[in-house]
Amino acid sequence: MKIEIKNFGDKLVSRPAGREAFLALESYQLKGLSENEPIEIDFAGIKALTPSWADEVVTKIAERFKNVKLLNADSMTVQATLKTLREYSNLKI
Fold first, then answer.
1. Are 32 and 39 in contact (CB under 8 A)?
2. Which pLDDT score, from 0 to 100, does residue 82 have?
3. Count of domains for the chain
4. Which of 15, 38, 71, 87 qualifies as a cystine partner to 52, CB 3.0-4.6 A?
């Protein structure tokens, strides 16, 4: 399953918006998937990503699924956010 983060916009900045994005994913794309389902989170086209938004989406996906891969995560904003989540939210990917 590939999740294209840009479907939620290119500037992802608030915890409430992240929570809403995760609920949409959970209802439509993630519903009924096994915890062993390979999940690819694609950050292509993202201009701004805050730790609060990503904590609501990326951290929750990583907690739920065992095989999560990050794609196009080379931008400075994505790298800085992932670093923060690894330090403070115990993100394992």
1. no
2. 97
3. 1
4. 15
Q: Residue range 63-72: average pLDDT? A: 97
Asked if 41 and 5 touch (Cβ cutoff 8 Å), the reply is yes
Q: Is the dihedral of CA 7, 8, 13, 19 positive or negative?
A: negative
What are the residues whose beta carbons fall under 8 Å from the beta carbon of 20, sequence distance 6 or more?
A: none
Element (H, E) at 41: strand 39-42
33 falls within a domain: yes
Q: What span, in angstroms and rounded, lies between the C-alpha atoms of 32 and 11?
A: 29
Could you say which DSSP state residue 55 is in? I
What does DSSP assign to residue 90?
A: -
> Burial, 54: exposed, middle or buried (Cβ in 10 Å; 0-12, 13-18, 19+)?
buried
In a domain, 78, yes or no: yes
Predicted local distance difference test score (pLDDT) of residue 17: 98
Using a cut of 0.90, tell me whether the model's pTM lies above it.
yes
